[in-house]
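Fig. S4 source data, part A: sequence.
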Amino acid sequence: MQAIITVENLSKVYPLYADKRDRLVEALDPFRRKRHTDFYALRDVSFTVEKGESVGIIGVNGSGKSTLLKVLTGVLHPSAGRVEVLGRVSALLELGVGFHPERTGRENIYFQGTLLGMEKEEINAYLPSVLEFADIGDFIDQPVKLYSSGMYIRLAFAAAIQGNPDILIVDEALSVGDARFQAKCFDRLRRLKEAGTSILLVTHSTDQIVTHCNRAILLSSGHMVEMGKPKRIANLYLDMLFGRDIGQQTDTAASEQAVDPARAVEDADITKADDFPLDNQRDVFSMHPNYNEHEYRWGDRAAKILDFYLEADGIPYPSVLVSGQILTLALSIRFLRPLVAPILGIEIKTKEGVRVYGTNSDLLNAREFRDYGQPNTVIHAVARFPCRLATGDYFVSLGIATHEGAEIVPHDRRYDSIHLHVSPTSTFYGLTTLDLHLTSSQISL
């Protein structure tokens, strides 16, 4: 495939001065003595983007995402390295960039088109489709400084996607749009991609990354941590977000004892830790048929998820689920150090990593769970829910965490640890059923 964007050893450096007078002194110093420190917004970043590819860029605030896009669009010049961009670039950067606040929406459309090298006749040709997509009515002839953030982004996105750009760059801008408009935008992005447009999408949403991108880039402090499959990059980003060292090895060997299925389902009381000796080095969690050997596990192990038991309408560890069955998921959890108000989280995702459902003991107001956390105790937690999933493969993620102020401290996270396969159904499509019931009647005229 043709590389439409090539980035080699890209760095962007800003000088930081302790005193604003140092800038002048440094400039006038005949010996060119350095009076600043170098801040690397980007350091030695390399990657390529192929024609028709959609690449997500994700990272915590300050990781260099916006700087990278500004270099790619020519807003900033690199301090070192090489950047090659082939074709016409249309960019939707931070809200407020690209439009003149005193000019009307219509005038700004022509202004932006002219900057992209278009003739007036070409802009006239796509103007009706811009107005239809933006859907802001008579405000199109009002100064954009009067627009709400939603109106502004609708017009900006509508203008950016017209004219069949070779490369479309979107930087967090869609986060201010409502759900209906976001769905409309992502549908248009899909069609642009199918037509051969390469898309760079900066977002903090892991769901958007895994749903809309072929590959993803994780940035941290100006460095490119990794470029790869969206699901893996999303997991690495969550690690970074919740405090795990990316280089930390996953611990898959837990010294645990199996859940007694009958007891786990019928009795969720605290069990004595002596019932779960630590001299057994087997990870019994991984010995069940529904276990996913490619789970992604980490945490400080102040608490451990020892084991699980899965049942569907009385069938233990089912290989195939039928939509409508009642599922029972029992968990055994050991607390090794004192914890204050622990939280149990459960999440279900598609095999591509799209979140179908997620909740936790706090959201469910399960107050008894907050009273747990005494060291050397084991509890059984039981969740029951109907399987309303569409045909396909799903993964269940589990986690134990606590709050320390505004921070979330993960103790044991087992991402994608349990595999569910739902058999074909012909009554609905999508990801989940709402058990819709349809009735009708005829009226005689």
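Fig. S4 source data, part B ends here. Confidence is low (pLDDT under 50) at residues 246-258, 261-281.
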